[in-house]
Specification:
Blueprint: E1 10-14, H1 20-31, E2 39-44, H2 51-58, E3 65-68, H3 78-86, E4 91-94, E5 100-101, H4 105-110, E6 118-128, E7 134-137, H5 139-145, E8 155-167, H6 173-176, H7 178-195, H8 203-210
Parallel strand pairs: 1-2, 1-4, 2-3, 6-8
Antiparallel strand pairs: 5-8, 6-7
Length: 228
């Protein structure tokens, strides 16, 4: 297949969630990719700050879908599900509103889908702080994820180059909504254990997730209403 034949349309979701300080940098890193995007899908989580205005300004003149929610569900995963249902492109990039992407991320991850069995692709990330300064590499996360098979016979593609900058800061959803975030992680972990052969010994995955808890793991029913 030559390059003129392999040009899938890419939608991306942008779950806007009270990140006015970072929205412009994030959107610009997406809009200025070397491979053109097809469609932005913005799902606002009832953000009380000025991020909606920032998003509208950045996307002025860009054809996009914008959903303004009246309440914040507190869920990380529900906007992903909704964006997948709305997307018109052949591929969808699941983004966060406070990270930053290398301008070649689209182009390089796209090449992995030349393998027809590839269903999902991801790249290496590095950690940045609120000032966009690099603070750490995140290679340890890939050591774990690369051993998990959750796509029922399809392939997960991995680009070892650090094309994504994953932001840690005081107002991240992981901190402000920690109980919902952790309960969703527990629900997803249980789904992986029950529906896949994630590990030769599933207890390894349990130990990884429960390492921060004492005694028996808490209930696996998410406060956000997610059931695996």
């Amino acid at each position: 297949m030559n390059d003129t034949e392999f040009q899938p349309k890419i939608s991306f979701n942008f779950p806007n969630d009270n990140h006015a300080a970072f929205s412009r940098e994030r959107l610009e890193s997406i809009l200025n990719q070397t491979y053109p995007y097809h469609e932005p899908i913005v799902l606002d989580a009832a953000s009380p700050d000025t991020s909606v205005e920032v998003v509208h300004e950045c996307l002025s003149g860009v054809n996009h879908q914008f959903i303004l929610n009246k309440t914040n569900s507190g869920s990380t995963f529900l906007p992903w599900v909704r964006a997948l249902a709305m997307a018109k492109g052949e591929l969808i990039w699941i983004t966060e509103s406070n990270d930053v992407a290398d301008p070649t991320l689209f182009e390089k991850l796209l090449q992995t889908f030349r393998d027809n069995d590839a269903a999902l692709a991801y790249c290496q990330s590095i950690a940045i702080n609120a000032q966009s300064e690099v603070t750490a590499n995140l290679t340890g996360w890939e050591d774990v994820i690369s051993r998990v098979s959750i796509l029922h016979g399809r392939k997960i593609a991995y680009v070892a180059e650090a094309l994504n900058r994953y932001r840690f800061h005081a107002t991240t959803v992981r901190r402000l909504k920690s109980s919902v975030y952790l309960s969703e992680c527990r629900a997803m972990t249980r789904w992986i254990i029950e529906k896949t052969e994630a590990w030769d010994n599933p207890g390894d995955l349990c130990d990884l997730r429960w390492s921060g808890f004492s005694g028996q793991p808490p209930s696996l029913t998410s406060e956000a209403g997610y059931r695996p």
